[in-house]
Amino acid sequence: MSLQIMRLMAVLCVITTMGTAFYFITQNANPIDQQNWMSVNMARLNNALGSNREFAVARHDRSNVRMPAERILADLYTRQSADHFAAFASGYIYNALAIDVAPPSR
Length: 106
Fold this sequence. Notes:
By secondary structure, the chain is mainly alpha-helical. The protein is built from 4 helices and 2 strands. It has helices at residues 2-28, 31-48, 69-74, 76-96, and strands spanning 54-58, 64-68. The protein has a two-stranded antiparallel ribbon with strand order 1-2. A hairpin with a 5-residue loop joins strand 1 (54-58) and strand 2 (64-68). Helix 2 packs across helix 4 (76-96).
Protein backbone atom coordinates (compact mmCIF):
# COMPACT_ATOMS: atom_id res chain seq x y z
CA MET A 1 0.00 0.00 0.00
CA SER A 2 2.76 2.46 0.85
CA LEU A 3 4.49 1.77 -2.51
CA GLN A 4 1.31 2.82 -4.34
CA ILE A 5 1.19 6.04 -2.33
CA MET A 6 4.86 6.71 -3.12
CA ARG A 7 4.21 6.19 -6.84
CA LEU A 8 1.20 8.48 -6.71
CA MET A 9 3.25 11.15 -4.92
CA ALA A 10 6.02 10.86 -7.55
CA VAL A 11 3.51 11.24 -10.39
CA LEU A 12 1.94 14.21 -8.63
CA CYS A 13 5.34 15.87 -8.25
CA VAL A 14 6.13 15.43 -11.96
CA ILE A 15 2.72 16.77 -13.00
CA THR A 16 3.08 19.77 -10.69
CA THR A 17 6.60 20.49 -11.93
CA MET A 18 5.57 20.29 -15.58
CA GLY A 19 2.48 22.42 -14.91
CA THR A 20 4.63 25.09 -13.30
CA ALA A 21 7.09 25.00 -16.20
CA PHE A 22 4.20 25.29 -18.69
CA TYR A 23 2.83 28.28 -16.77
CA PHE A 24 6.18 30.07 -16.86
CA ILE A 25 6.61 29.27 -20.55
CA THR A 26 3.24 30.76 -21.49
CA GLN A 27 3.75 33.81 -19.29
CA ASN A 28 7.33 34.67 -20.26
CA ALA A 29 7.65 33.68 -23.91
CA ASN A 30 7.29 36.02 -26.84
CA PRO A 31 3.62 35.87 -27.98
CA ILE A 32 4.64 36.15 -31.63
CA ASP A 33 6.87 33.08 -31.28
CA GLN A 34 4.07 31.21 -29.48
CA GLN A 35 1.57 31.87 -32.28
CA ASN A 36 4.04 31.00 -35.01
CA TRP A 37 5.01 27.77 -33.24
CA MET A 38 1.37 26.69 -33.20
CA SER A 39 0.85 27.76 -36.83
CA VAL A 40 3.92 25.84 -38.02
CA ASN A 41 2.84 22.69 -36.15
CA MET A 42 -0.70 22.91 -37.53
CA ALA A 43 0.71 23.52 -41.03
CA ARG A 44 2.92 20.42 -40.71
CA LEU A 45 -0.07 18.35 -39.62
CA ASN A 46 -2.31 19.63 -42.42
CA ASN A 47 0.44 19.18 -44.97
CA ALA A 48 0.95 15.57 -43.83
CA LEU A 49 -2.80 14.98 -44.19
CA GLY A 50 -2.80 16.45 -47.70
CA SER A 51 -4.62 19.67 -46.83
CA ASN A 52 -3.47 23.22 -47.56
CA ARG A 53 -5.57 25.25 -45.12
CA GLU A 54 -4.73 28.82 -44.23
CA PHE A 55 -3.47 29.79 -40.78
CA ALA A 56 -2.75 33.11 -39.13
CA VAL A 57 0.93 33.93 -38.84
CA ALA A 58 2.25 36.77 -36.69
CA ARG A 59 4.73 39.18 -38.23
CA HIS A 60 7.44 41.03 -36.28
CA ASP A 61 5.25 44.17 -36.17
CA ARG A 62 2.46 42.17 -34.47
CA SER A 63 0.24 42.14 -37.54
CA ASN A 64 -1.41 38.86 -38.55
CA VAL A 65 -1.17 37.45 -42.05
CA ARG A 66 -3.11 34.47 -43.33
CA MET A 67 -0.97 31.97 -45.24
CA PRO A 68 -1.59 28.52 -46.68
CA ALA A 69 0.19 25.64 -44.96
CA GLU A 70 2.77 25.13 -47.72
CA ARG A 71 3.80 28.79 -47.63
CA ILE A 72 4.11 28.73 -43.83
CA LEU A 73 6.50 25.80 -44.05
CA ALA A 74 8.53 27.60 -46.74
CA ASP A 75 8.66 30.93 -44.85
CA LEU A 76 12.03 31.27 -43.11
CA TYR A 77 10.94 33.97 -40.60
CA THR A 78 7.97 31.93 -39.37
CA ARG A 79 9.99 28.74 -38.98
CA GLN A 80 12.80 30.56 -37.14
CA SER A 81 10.26 32.19 -34.83
CA ALA A 82 8.71 28.79 -34.07
CA ASP A 83 12.16 27.27 -33.46
CA HIS A 84 12.99 30.12 -31.08
CA PHE A 85 9.88 29.35 -29.02
CA ALA A 86 10.66 25.61 -29.00
CA ALA A 87 14.19 26.29 -27.72
CA PHE A 88 12.83 28.68 -25.07
CA ALA A 89 10.23 26.15 -23.90
CA SER A 90 12.64 23.21 -23.81
CA GLY A 91 15.03 25.26 -21.70
CA TYR A 92 12.32 25.80 -19.11
CA ILE A 93 11.35 22.12 -19.13
CA TYR A 94 14.97 20.92 -18.81
CA ASN A 95 15.50 23.37 -15.97
CA ALA A 96 12.30 22.27 -14.20
CA LEU A 97 13.32 18.61 -14.41
CA ALA A 98 16.92 19.44 -13.43
CA ILE A 99 18.32 17.95 -16.63
CA ASP A 100 21.78 19.27 -17.40
CA VAL A 101 22.25 19.70 -21.12
CA ALA A 102 25.97 20.04 -21.60
CA PRO A 103 27.46 20.76 -25.02
CA PRO A 104 29.04 17.71 -26.63
CA SER A 105 32.69 17.21 -25.77
CA ARG A 106 35.20 17.06 -28.56
